[in-house]
Structure formats: structure tokens, C-alpha cells
Amino acid sequence: MKKISKRAKAAYLLLIVFTVGLVFFYTNFAINGGKWALSAYNTHIYSNGALQTTGSIVDRYGKVLAKSENGKRTYYEDLATRKSLMHIIGDNSSFLSGSIQQTYADKLAGYSALNGVHMLSAFNKVSKMELSISAELQKKVANAFGSKRGAVIAYNYKTGEIVCSLSAPNYDPQNKPENLDGSYYEGIYVNRALNGMYPPGSTFKIITSIAAIENIPDIFSQKFVCNGKCTMPDGGTITCSGKHGEIDFKKGFSVSCNVVFANVANMVGAEKIKSVAEKFGFNQNGKMGKIGYSGGYYDAGKAGATNLGWSGIGQYTVLASPITMMQVSGAVANGGSLNSPKVVNRIYNAFGIPTNLNISLPKSVISNGTSSTLNEMMKMAAEYTFGESTVNNYSLRCKTGTAEVEKGKPHAWLSGFMDSSENPYAFAIIVENGGSAASSTRYVALTLLKGLTELDR
Amino acid sequence: MSEKRFKNKKEAKFKVTPTKLISAVILFQLICLLRLAFCETTWEKPIAFIGLGVFMAFEIIYCYLIKRFMGGGGVLEISAFFLSGVGLFALAGTTPSAVLWQLFAFFIGVVFYVLFTLFLSNLDRVMRFKKYIIALAVLLLVLNLTLGKVIGGSQNWIRIGALSMQPSEFVKVAFVLVGATTLEKMQSSNHLTWFIVFFGVCMGSLAWMGDLGTACVFFATFLVLCFLRSGRLGTIILMVSGAVLGAGAMIIAKPYVARRFKVWRHVWENADGLGYQQTRTLIAIASGGLLGVGPGEGKLKGVVASTTDLMFGVVSEEWGLLLATLVLLIYFGWVVLAIKGSANAKSSFYAISAVAAACLLLFQAGLNVFGVTDIIPLTGITLPFVSKGGSSMIASWGLLSFLNFVPRLGEEK
């Protein structure tokens, strides 16, 4: 009898194995529960894989951008606005992986390990997310952008709130087209404003300038000669859009002279440019809340003089996302300190209680002096491109970029900001294969600027 | 010494009596009933409500009778009442029409439990009837093999008119009994040979039917029985290696089993294929959270075998993971009880059978829960007392009878 009860203790082994299994399961549940609950197979939320029931999303003024009613998910009433918001908000499918509806699926559905999706399924109570986007501004910008391909993004450089984010091409999230083939829809699921990686062209000269100002003490007194092109020490040629003759650094920036900046890049060196670029998020991926975005790419460490020169004017292998180029202008505007962008203002739970902290800590990326010098240079550049009256109207500071690409006309860029405490907005615009930056971004830029000045009024 | 006395004092202070226990269970079930009343889908099915009322009345009467005529005890039954209740309430929320049938099985189960306990109380009688029990068990298996219907991939069902049953469930009870008696009289190797032959017949039939889950349960129980009697770890290891080879052969012979193994830990990649049940169960558990979405509000009920194999998921989704965990803790507690009580059992038969039966129940529960949550391959087995199914319910009560013969909580001398 004693023997048996002693042997019976071996059954504790079974208890241990069982406990280990349970602990493993609960750990799994704690870590992946949200993912399980938000799986597209969950019929509490999805129907045949299509998003059906989850929380609502409103813009900065409380306008409903997306909501669920009677098991149907509907989006903003106006078609142009709806389409322009598709990449940020998402649609009923699960292809837009960087969208709010995908990345914040658990918050929207009000998921918690304690309650699961109970709020949603039993009480039909939903959480609400308030974005910093303005639907009205989206509409204006989307109409101005028309059927072009590219992106527009703008944010308040003092708070980090993104007020406009457009990626084109897009489609109506409410009635997703069945056929998304064809060259127009290429890369349709990519949010170009956040994840589009383009050669930044001359907008990158802002970064090269920062590196130059901070590293070459006599940069402003240096003189360069532009004959429409120049030969670099390794025998390569840099071409310029004009013949600028004898020209200094500041003038070179405002007229966007390639010869000046190819030489400046060689004077500064690849490492210093890279270190400035990395302060703005190049060579890394950014994150705003749960939404990831691409920074950019800069590495000219192995480049010869010509390629280093090209890298200084945003060509060679340099890449940047619109959100990054927006932040570059934003930091210059904000006296050198960078507020990281964000698109979600508030997350309210089913009881209307805000559950997120809405704070952002600015980080200093360039010195105050450098930023005011660049402010002045970007004002000159803005006057060169837009004319004095527009610059004065909007306190506009900007830099154009015409980025050569392998196929078709060059991409047209514009990155800039309004130097105004009333309208503290920075922005970036890219028009794919738009050709000349000045002409193809002009109408979009003016519409955006006007829209920004009308915000929060 | 003083520490021990202090401990005893403490235990005395917080003593759990059967009366307190049944009161707690009834209170819990009343709350569940109230919760069900707020649930639209079941309010329209008053029969389910009447069934649950009868069930609760029965619990009270049973405990009263035990107290009145047996002078105590009943902890074991109360814990099984709790489990059966969880199953019945979960059914009332998902498929109210099944409540009465399940309740009927519950009553048969309790009657079986009482009669079987009486039968077990006389060891000589048990020894005399052993051969008939073996014959009956083998007959059931033969019937199963000849008349068996393939349901859900394995041929472990037989259908007589409107009644369908899983004979292998009852064979479990016979198996524990035969195993424990055989090993009780180890002196004769003849007995042992017969037991091993019986084991072989069981395993062979189950393998033939493709019921890997039940085969695993039999094998685990066999190991427990053998170890308790022989105490030889080497033999156990040898048997496990043999079993692994056997399982390998089964996987090769039954492509259905092999496919189940293939999706193991890859259920999300096969979410609409062989990972369907597991992914839906995980989704259901997460959707329910710790507190559940409420009866009738779950979505897992729409999945095939939700109230049998996936009952853990249904309970989690609608009534919460906390309650589902409490269910598991009861099987766990029974094993602890059997281990502790085995020292004071009247005969080694009782000690062995109690430990083996408790381990069987826990092992089966583990196979079920860890299977549907993709921690181990899914085998398709029921959760004792909780899952819908008459055979499973009755057999579970039969197994519980064995636990009656080890002294337990609140009943120690």
C-alpha cells in the first residue's frame, strides 16, 4: 500500500506537464490574444473576411470618417474625401496593412484580455478614434491633386499632428474595384505618403546644406562657377539645369544649382551628410503610434567624387519618403527641434474615456542658428519658385526637387513650411513623373497652403 | 510539531463542507441562470430553462439525501455537478434544444455512478465479474468495428435507430477496472498476459477506427497502471518507445491523422483547412476574454463539433476563460486527491484505480484543451462532463466512481 502511494506521486509529473501546458497557453493568450481576436476570420468583427463591426473613426472636428452600423462598415460620405483617406483609414479588406483599421484593430474593436470583444459583440458599444486629419482639407487637396500619382502630407510642426495625408492612386474603400490591375494601380496598397521611397532630388539639398553650414565655417563666402555642368576629380560629370556662372552657396540653394551642391557634398563628405540625414530618420523605419513609416536611404560611403556629388543633390542611391521630407522642413521651421508626426489624437474606449496619452517630446536635430539660416535660404528659394507675393501671403519657405528616374519624366518634389505661429505647418508634395517641380506641384501647393490657413478657424 | 498543529488549526477554521460547497455551486448556477435570462436566444426556449431548473433541484435533493442517509460526503459529486452544469449552461446558450438530451445523459450518468460505486465496494464481486466486463468491452469494440460509422474522420460511432453512441467511452471504464484488478493479483502472470492482450485489442481497435485521441488516453492510462504496480521506470520507457513506433505506423497508415500532425503549430496558415477548428477556437477564446461575451453571443457555436470537441472554446468565449480555467482545475484537483488519498485506500485496487481514473480524466482534458489551442496536435476528444455527448457523460461518471474509494477532502478520519 505504501509502495503504491509512493508510486502514485509519479502522477505529479502529469500535473506538472499539465501546468506547463496551461502556463504556455496563458502566455500565448496574453501575447497573441489581440491578434487572434482581430483575425479576419473572427466573425464578431468580420464577415467573409470583410470588416463589418468595429469602432468609429472621426477627424479632428469629429466628422465621421468610418463607422459601423447594423453590421455594415461605411466611410465618409464624399467620394473624393473617402478615396483620399483610404490609405490612412483602410478599407474592409486586410490588404492595407499600415492603415488605422489594421494597425489599431484591437483598439477600435475595444479588445482587452479581460473582456475580449465583449463591448462590441454584446453591447454594440464601440470605441472611437479621433485623428488629427481634417476631412475638409483632404477633399480640397485631393481635388487639386486630380488623377496624378504621388503623395501630399502636411503636419503642424509644433504639435506633430498630421492634418493631411494623401496617397494616389487610391480607390473607394466603400466599393473596392474588382480589377486593380494595370499600370495606374501599380503599388495601390502602398501609402506613398508614409512608405513611398523616392529619390528626393533637390529637396535633399536642405540636408546637404545643414551638413555644410554645421561643418564648413566659411561656406557662405565660398564661390563656385557653374557652366551648366562640371567635371568632378574622378572624371565624371555633374549636369545642372542652368548656367549660373559665378555663384555662392546661398544663391546656389535658391536657384537649386547642382554644380554648387555636388562640390559642397564633396567638401562635407559622405559621413557628415549621412549623420545629418539619419537625424531626420534616414536609414531607419519610423513609427507613429502603431503605424510604421519608411525613413529614407542615404549611404555614399563607397561613392566616388561624382556619385558623392550626385548624392548631395538627392540622386545616386538616395531615397526618401514624403513624411521624412516633411519632417526635414518641419525641423527647420521649428527652430531645429523636431516634433515626431502623429495621426491619432485620441482613442476613446466604449465608455468615452480617452485611453491614450497625447504628448510628444520634440528632439533637437539641428542648431537654432542653422535653422534660421536655412529659413532664410528657403525663403529665397520660395521666392525664386513662387514669386514674392505668394511667399508673403503664406510666409512660405520651401525647396523644390526634380528627381531624375529611370523611366519617364522626373518626379516633382516640394518640401516646405509656413513660417507663421498662426499656421505652423510643414509639408511635402511629390508628383510622380510630374516633370518640372515648380510647375507641376504649384497648384497642389497653393491649394494646400490656402487650406492650411483655413484650418481650425 | 507546533507548526503542524497550527496548520491543522487553520485547516479546521476554513473547512470546506459539502453543504457550503453545494451552496456555492447553486449560487453560481443561479447567477448563470439569471445571465441566461437576459439572453434573447434562450429565453425563447423555455424548455432549456425548465431543464436547468430540474438539474439544480436534483443537485440539492441529491446532496440532501447524501447528508441525510450517508452522513456526509458528496464533494466528488458536487465537483462533477459543477462541471456538468457548466456544460449544460453552455449548451443552453448555444444549442438549447440539446439541453434536455444532455440532462437525460447526466441522470443516467449519476445512476450509473451510484450503482457502479456500490458494485465496486465489494472487491470479491469485482473480481468475479471481471471476465464478463472484459467480454462486454471486447463485444463493444467488435460492434464498433463492424457497425461503426465514420464521423469526423474516425469510425468510433455506432448508431442504433436515432441513438448514436461511442462505445470506446465505456471501454475506458472497463479498462481502468480490468487494469487495476489484474495488477492487484500480480502473482499470476496469466492475469497480466490477459490484461496486455485486452490492452492490445483496445489499442488495435482504436487504431483501426483512427481514433488517435482515445488511443492516447488508453495508452497513458496503461502507463499509469503499469507504473503503479511495477514501479519500474525502465519498462515504462520501453513502452513509450514502442508507442512512438506504433503512433508512427498509425500516422503512415491513416493519412487523416498525418494531415492533422502536419498543421500542428501551423494552424493560421491553414485557417480554412485543417487548422479551421483550432484557429476558430483561439479566436473564440480571445474574443471572450477572461469574462466572456455572454451566453448565445459567441460565434464558435457555428463551427462543427463546437459543443463536443471545442467545448473549451465555447465555454471560454461565452462564459469566459476564467470559468473555463476553473473547469480544468477540477480535473487537476481530482488527481491531487487521488494521489493523496491513495495512501489510505482500503486496498491497492482502490488506490490504483483511483489514481488511474483521475489521471485518465486529466489526461483527456489536457488532450482536448491543448489540442484545440494548437499546443499539441488536435485529436478530437471530449472534455469530460462538459462536452455534449451521452456516452462521454455516462463514462465520465463511471470513471468518477473509482475516486470514491480514496479518502478525500473533508472526509478524512
Oligomer status: heterodimer
Estimated helix fraction of chain A: 25-40%
Q: State the helix count of chain A.
A: 17
Query: CATH class of the domain at 194-345 and 362-453 in chain A, please?
Result: Alpha Beta
Biggest sheet statistics of chain A: 5 strands, mixed
The backbone outline of chain B, from C-alpha atoms, is globular
Care to describe what's here?
The complex is a heterodimer of chains A (457) and B (413). Chain A has helices at 2-8, 11-37, 79-89, 100-103, 105-108, 118-121, 135-145, 192-195, 205-215, 249-254, 258-268, 270-279, 305-312, 322-333, 368-386, 388-394, 437-453, and strands spanning 46-47, 50-51, 56-58, 64-69, 72-75, 128-131, 150-156, 162-168, 223-226, 229-231, 237-239, 245-248, 285-288, 291-294, 296-297, 319-320, 337-338, 344-348, 363-364, 396-403, 411-418, 425-431. The longest helix of chain A is centred in the first third of the chain and has 27 residues, at 11-37. Chain A is globular, with a radius of gyration of 26 Å. Chain A has 457 residues and is α+β, with helices and mostly antiparallel strands. Chain A has a domain at 194-345 and 362-453: Beta-lactamase. Chain A has a five-stranded mixed β-sheet, with helices on one face. A five-stranded antiparallel β-sheet of chain A has the order 8-7-22-21-20, with helices on both faces. The model of chain A has no long low-confidence stretch (mean pLDDT 91). Helix content of chain A is 38%, strand content 20%. Chain A is built from 17 helices and 22 strands. By secondary structure, chain B is mainly alpha-helical. Chain B has one domain (2-405). Chain B has 17 helices and three strands. Chain B has helices at residues 2-13, 18-37, 40-43, 46-70, 75-94, 99-120, 123-147, 167-184, 189-209, 212-230, 233-253, 255-263, 276-288, 311-319, 321-341, 348-372, 390-402, and strands spanning 149-151, 154-160, 163-165. Chain B has a three-stranded antiparallel β-sheet with strand order 1-2-3, with helices on one face. In chain B, a hairpin with a 2-residue loop joins strand 2 (154-160) and strand 3. In chain B, helix 2 (18-37) packs antiparallel against helix 4 and helix 10 packs antiparallel against helix 16 (348-372). Chain B starts with a helix and ends in an 11-residue tail after the last helix. At the A-B interface, helix 1 and helix 2 of A face helix 10, helix 13, helix 15 and helix 16 of B.
